[in-house]
Amino acid sequence: MLFPYVYVPHPMEILKHFLDFIFYEVWCKAPVSGSYRFALFDDLPELKELMETFHYSDTKGADFFNGHVERIYEIFSNLTQEQIALLASWYGANNEVEKICCNDPSIETVRYSDLEDFHPELAGQFSKFFKGLYSLLGLSDLKAKTGNIDDHYQAFMTKNISGKCPFCGIHDVKGVYHRNREAYDHYLPKGVYPFNSINFKNLAPACHECNSSYKLTKDPAYNPKDPLLTQTNGKRKAFYPYAANSHKIELNLKLKCRDWTDINPLDIEMTFGPEELKEQITTWDDVYGIQERYKAKCCGENDGKYWIEQVLDEWREDDRKPDDFLKALSRNTEKKPYAEANFLKVPFLNACKKAGLFDNL
Ligand SMILES: [Zn+2]
C-alpha cells in the first residue's frame, strides 16, 4: 500500500473487548464453571446487560449471538486443558494483525482449514459465529451501546483526509462530505481467519476496485501456491494498514514504444523499490493487481495519453519546455503525491522523456 491509515479509536472497539472476555473468561473456563448462565458474565456488567437484552429481544441477530455463545460454551466444557490452551494461543495470535503482517515468527495463526482438523464441530460453530458477527454491527441494541459503523466511518475519515485509497492511490475513497461510505475490507479475510472479524486493526476502508474487483478473498499474509514462498510455508510479509511509520514506494518505469498514440501495457516495464520492502511490495502487487492497473492507467486516453498531450501542448502552444514542465510537476508531487495520480504521472512522463518521446516536436 502506498501509505498507511491513521488508526482512529472509537467506542465500537468495545465489541472486541466483549469478545475477548467471552473467549478467555467464559469459553476457556467452561470445563470448571458449571452450567451455562448469565452469572458467567458478572465481571463485565456491560456485556451481561447486552446479553440479557439480547435474550429478551426477538431479532434474529440477538438470537444468533446468544445462541452461538452458549453452543460454543457447551463444546468448550468438554475440551481438555491442552486443547483450550492451544485455542487461546490461536485466538491471541489471530488478533495480532500487525505481527501477522510482519510475518513475525513468534506468531502461530490458525485458519478455518486447520480448525477443521482440530475439532470439526467447533470449527463449524466458530465459522458461523465469527463470519456472522460483522453483520451484527447494525443491530439496534448494539448500536445503542457502541454507535454504528457509519459513525465510525465519519470519525475515521475526519482523521484520514487524503480522499484517496491508500491501497492503490488511483481511486477516491468517500469522505465526510459523502452520504455513503466505502466498504471496510477485512484485511486478513474473515472467511479464512477465525477470531478477528470485528478487530478494527483488521478492518480498513478501501475503494470498490481494490476491495471488490482485485483483493476479494485473497490473503495478504499467506499464499501457499507461490513457489518462492516454500521456505516460509507460504507465509509472507504484507503492508500493515495502520503502521505507525509511513514508507515511500519508489516507482520506476521504462517505455519501449516510440509512438505514444499507440501505447499499450506491453510497452511498459515497471519496477518497484526500495529493496528492503521488496516482499511487502510483491504481496501488494499480487493482492491488488497493482502493475496491471498502473499500466492500464498509463495507457488510458484520459490518463497517460492525456499526460503526454499536456506536455506536448504546453511545448507547442506556450513554448514551455518538457524539462520545465517535469520540474514543476516533480515539485508538486513532492507536496501532493496522491493528487491527480502524481506519484505515477511523474515516473511515467520521465520514462516518456527517456524513450525520446519529447525529443522532437
Ligand atoms: Zn484502491
Brief account:
The protein has 361 residues and is mainly alpha-helical. Helices cover 48% and strands 5% of the residues. It has a two-stranded antiparallel sheet with strand order 1-2. It has a two-stranded antiparallel sheet with strand order 3-4.
Tags for this entry?
two-stranded antiparallel sheet, 16 helices, 4 strands, 5% strand, binds zinc ion
How many separate domains?
Answer: 2
Largest sheet: 2 strands, antiparallel
* Rg computed from alpha carbons, rounded to a whole number of angstroms: 25 Å
Total number of β-strand segments? Answer: 4
Helix/strand order: HHHHHHHHHHEEHEEHHHHH
What spatial form do the alpha-carbon principal axes imply? elongated
Average pLDDT, rounded to a whole number, is: 96
Distance between the termini: 38 Å
Query: What oligomeric arrangement do these chains adopt?
Result: single chain
State the strand order across the main sheet: 1-2
The parts where pLDDT drops under 50 for at least 5 residues are none
3D structure, described in words:
The protein has two domains: 11-215, no CATH class; 250-354, no CATH class. It is built from 16 helices and four strands. 34% of the residues are buried. It has helices at residues 14-27, 30-33, 45-56, 60-76, 81-94, 97-101, 112-118, 120-133, 140-146, 149-159, 208-215, 278-288, 290-298, 304-318, 322-335, 342-354, and strands at 184-186, 203-205, 250-255, 268-273. With 361 residues, the protein is mostly helical. The chain starts with 13 loop residues before the first helix and ends in a 7-residue tail after the last helix. The longest helix has 17 residues, at 60-76. The strands form two sheets. A two-stranded antiparallel sheet has the order 1-2. Helix content is 48%, strand content 5%. The protein is elongated. The structure holds zinc ion (ZN). Zinc ion is lined by residues 165, 167-168, 171, 206-207, 209-210. The site of zinc ion has 8 residues, from helix 11.
